Prior knowledge:
Elements: E1 5-15, E2 22-33, H1 39-42, H2 51-75, H3 80-96
Antiparallel strand pairs: 1-2
Amino acid sequence: xxxxxxxxxxxxxxxxxxxxxxxxxxxxxxxxxxxxxxxxxxxxxxxxxxxxxxxxxxxxxxxxxxxxxxxxxxxxxxxxxxxxxxxxxxxxxxxxxxxxxxxxxxxxx
Length: 109
């Protein structure tokens, strides 16, 4: 039997007037749990990750990044080392700013 977890991240951006960059407005995320798992172990009554849901959510994002790095390298879109440096720089920038967390909702636009 396999268990599967899906991590969904939605980033909202505001385009800058220069048309080449944008400002990060907010990020919403969600964890989805396969039907053969007891969702109440991983999610609270509002569908938000509980303590037990944080590790699978983190792993979905990490493995997604790893897969994305390999895919981009195989296709010749981005060198793996440069891609990884970009990710590290973005993580550093994200932790350098004050984080505001709130209960978000993901909707399809």
